[in-house]
Structure formats: structure tokens, C-alpha cells
Design a protein that fits this description.
This protein has 132 residues and is an alpha/beta fold. The chain is elongated and about 100 Å long. Helix 3 links the parallel strand 4 and strand 5. The model has no long low-confidence stretch (mean pLDDT 79). The longest helix is centred in the first third of the chain and has 20 residues. It has a domain of 69 residues: 2-Layer Sandwich (Nucleotidyltransferase, domain 5), CATH 3.30.420. The chain has a 5-stranded mixed sheet with strand order 3-2-1-4-5, covered by helices on one side. The termini are far apart. The protein has 3 helices and 5 strands, in the order αβββαβαβ.
Length: 132
């Protein structure tokens, strides 16, 4: 007489708990992504279709050399001098004040960010050109 086993192993998988976890994760990431605010500079790159009208003051071009020295329209200048020029430009042009920031390929990124941060703090538009 053959004895039959009554307990069979079920190969089924219950998906209800897995879908609950997926929906909870989806809700979590949707809520946290709306809270995160990007910490980035608002750059105006050349070549956009909606470029602002040219400022009434003479264009100021800040060039950053590979050794970290600054020049304003070809004349050497310090970071404080750049800030003073930005303030003067802001007085002349108001909300339309803009500068062009140009750099060499191996320029120090900290020097570039320092100029862009000055423009952001003084509410002057900064246009960053491609490296030379």
C-alpha cells in the first residue's frame, strides 16, 4: 500500500505585500522630490533664442587667466574691483545689468565661481562663455 503525501509545497507568490511596498516607496519619492530645491547658479549661456536686450552701458568682459588673475576689458583687476564695477554697472543699467565671463581652458573653477557668485549677490546677469 502506497502512502500518499498530503502536504504539497505551493510555488505561488503573493504580490499584494510587494505592491503595497512599491506604492509606499513611490509616494515617499514623490513627496521628497518636491521638497528638494536645486542649489545652482542661473546661467545665461550665449546662443539662446530669447536673449535679453543689450545693456545701455559699455559691455564688461571679465577674463579669468589660467593662473587665476582677472582682467576687465583687458586691464588687470582684483576681485574687489570687479565687484565695484558690477555695482557701477548696476547703477547705470538697473535690472538689465550684465557682464560676460570668459575663461581659459585650465582656469581655476573657484575663480570662475567667485565671479559668478559676485554677479548673483549683486543681481547682475552673468553670461558665461565657452573656455578659450
Amino acid at each position: 500500500m502506497a502512502v500518499k503525501k498530503r502536504s504539497k509545497v505551493s510555488a505561488e507568490f503573493n504580490m499584494s505585500s510587494l505592491t503595497d511596498i512599491i506604492f509606499l516607496l513611490l509616494i515617499f519619492f514623490m513627496l521628497t522630490s518636491s521638497v528638494v530645491s536645486p542649489n545652482a547658479l542661473d546661467l545665461i549661456l550665449p546662443g539662446k533664442k530669447t536673449s535679453p536686450p543689450p545693456p545701455t552701458a559699455k559691455n564688461k568682459t571679465v577674463t579669468i587667466a589660467e593662473d587665476g588673475n582677472y582682467t576687465l576689458n583687458g586691464a588687470p583687476i582684483s576681485l574687489d574691483g570687479i565687484e565695484n564695477q558690477m555695482l557701477a554697472l548696476k547703477r547705470i543699467d538697473g535690472a538689465k545689468a550684465a557682464i560676460v565671463v570668459s575663461m581659459y581652458g585650465k582656469s581655476n573653477n573657484e575663480a570662475v565661481i567667485a565671479v559668478l557668485n559676485l554677479a548673483y549677490v549683486n543681481e547682475v546677469r552673468a553670461v558665461l562663455t565657452e573656455p578659450k
